[in-house]
Amino acid sequence: MTNLLNFLFSRTDKQLFILLLIILLFSLNLIGQAAGFNSTFFFKQLIFIFTGLIIFMLVSILNLRFLFRYSLIIYILSIFLLLLTDIFGTEINGSKRWLNFGVFKLQSSEILKITLPIFLVSLIDYFKNKSQTFTELVFLSISLIPFFIILKQPDLGSGLIILFSGLIIIFLNGLSLKKIMMGILGFLILLPYAWLNILKDYQKGRILNLFDPFSNPLDGGYHAIQSSIAIGSGGLFGKSSEFSSQHDLLFLPETHTDFIFAVLSESYGFLGNIIFFLIFFLFIYKLILISINLHSHSHRLLAMTYVMIFILCFLINIAMVSGLFPIVGIPLPLISYGGSSLFIYLIMFALINSLNYNKTLIAD
Amino acid sequence: MLNSRFILVRRFNILLTILSLFLLLISIRLFWLQIYKNDFYLERSKSNSERIEPIKPLRGLIFDRNDNILAENILTYNLEVDIEKKSTEELNSIIGELSTILSISEHERNLFFKMRSERKFLRKIPLKININNEELAFFVSKKFLFPDVTIKEDFLRSYPYGIENAHLIGFINRISKKDLEKIENDPEMLDDYFGITHIGKQGIENSFENDLRGKSGFKKIRVNAKNSFIAEIENRIASDGQDLILSIDLDLQRKSHEVLKNYKGSLIMTDISNNEVLAYQSNPSFDPNLFVNGISFADWDKLNSDPSKPMLDRVTNAAYPPGSTIKPFLSIAGLENNIINEDYSINDPGFYKLPKTKKIFMDWKKGGHGNVNIITAIAESCDVYFYDLAYRLGIEKMDRSLSKFSFGQQTGINLPTEKRGILPSPEWKLKHHKKKWNTYETINTSIGQGDFLSTPAQLVNGLNILLNNKQLPPLSLIKDKFLYEPLNVKKITDEKYIEIVKRGMQEVTSSNGTFRSITNNNNNKIAGKTGTAQVFSLKNQAYDEDNIADHLKDHSLFIGYAPYDNPQVSIAVIIENGGHGSTVAAPIAKKMIDFYFETIK
Both B465 and B372 in a single domain? Predict the structure, then answer.
């Protein structure tokens, strides 16, 4: 047993692991505050974290060559899971995002966050002799397939994250400035079309609420207003316990999931937020260092893409909770309650960890 | 390879820079929310979860001097609707559903919406007041259908002897828009009225509003988003209103309603020693209970369009020519100015010719009273005697003496409104008619005609001053309000003049007096003065009581007191268009005084 643990730890970056543990403890504390320390959410999250760490260990020792070799099959399996969700998925609040495995509900779109970058990165070597534009168009097409499926669920937020992970790879892989400009131009041209034909009314409402949440205080604006109140009332040091908090009194629902940052802001204030950011900054900094120092181009690309997705989701969630961004269902990475999201990020970090450990073994 | 790594890291740094800017933006946003706007959001957070519920004080009770209750609070059950965040359509549908199990009148519905639009800070508004037990039981059985409708215990103001005390007690009514403006302009008042729905509108209920109302309390509680109770934050108990004990005697008050029943008029009866009012009655009257929860349009229209004006308080808010009841006071003026004395007498041929003019003033008695002195002039109400007196006295001295008896001034009675009447004078005429005073007007004034107007309350107040020969505290409806004698009270005039006038008033009820009909029946030693006030002056036409429209008939007046050897109670009675003072008003006064000495005393 001790040997096994030693074996596992020897393959793990110590600093990264410790920072990860601190963040997960932070998460437990916040979920406990939001949902209650003796609530099922707290205990389930405890189990999720425990399971997640085991997954982290197991993935850390995974042979990555195998992953790259079967990346096409993994990608096809992921798409298949998405389609399955479309047929057999559990409908919650009008959208089909979860596959129900009894003990565990899997948000299938989360899997693409891992598998899509792997597939794209593994293709780079095959496309070495093809023209850059061809490669980029193929990458874009591969990214758009899951995007449209997820968009149909509907889950615009997750879909965009998946599409973005593809775009990040294309960008990092050396997309020319001319094409970037063309892309932005194309986006601007498509924007009115998307507004009129793709976005649903509630999604438009959420975007409009951003500008004037009080115009619709009971419906779409309610979350935005209540979470602003929760954050704003936290002040510098957080709200003392004599004032009842927003989440205790249920004014802000879903605090243990997407809006958990509001609980943090309300309980620990601006100072708490800064400390929270610092911990995350250190963690991300560590990830960046590891990513940059990987030996193979494709490995660097994969690790950097994961880091980018992580940072992006982190920032989007906070921007959304603090009223800078429309309310899209993106949880706060590593902090929000929920198994799918946690496992996905832990697998990502485990993969980066594994790439780091194996970098000397892989010939560049 | 090195090249591709270089590009990759540079691209990576570009993305990191963009995201760092994004983080900076978020940090600014958090700073703005948490530091700059912290107070605002803290307040919002508090108001999110705090609810203030008013605790209404109990309105003070009103008793008569013998502890009979005149205004009380009855426990009732009201149906209240929670209006928070509900549109008119939603409320209409709630009321519509309610009306399938209970009767809800158009009037109740209108009052509900009126209150909703006026009282913006109320969360719950009564829809149906004072539901009976049957309705209550029925509603409770169906309550689950109406989550927004609650039964609220409340107290309903009730006036057990409503119509007999209407003008005196007045009534409370729902707070109107106008009242609300006044209340909202005064933060302290707004506190006191928190959750209170009614306000004194007339009579004692209005003038003692601040004492009767008390102060609202409140309960500040913390609730969660589902409006469930979490904790109590603050609890300020309400302080109930003060009870009032009136100087009024309920039995006498009810008797006064009875004796006035068939007339349009009023009476006021007082305790001479302290100027406290024992009976205060105006007829026709109305039921104040109709007003308490908003009078219906039909009832209001009926009261308002009634030509006999039941809402008019004829004791203090109607002024009449005092007629001959002014003569005792004028006598004091003549005596103290040495125009007349006890021995002075004149011969009355039945008319008076104003010196230096051709104007002739008739005495009410054809052929005149013959030889009259001050005593017989009062007893027989000889007009010519007072024409002569007034002419020689002059209007200035006359006014100076009469104003000592508070004519032309408010009595200061503790009611919200009071007419001051008119004591005519050259200044008054110049001011109001832009004309100079004529001597003949002095003659008219001497018999309480012309522009002279006074309220019954002024008459009885003047009489009390005369009988006490000193200034008195204002007429009071509250028992024992002025317990101590004001120091250093100067006499109004020489005591012997008072005695002369009192003898004259005593002679009024003697076999020669105008009220001689009671001479053989005057057990309670009533003295007084009758009066007949012209409403309409008939030029060169004989006054024929039987052939004149009712509203042009003379007003019948009487002021009096008893017993004449030791005055205790005084009274003023006016019967509109009642004819002679001696035939209508005086007998009513006698009934009251007899009732007082036989039943009360």
Answer: yes
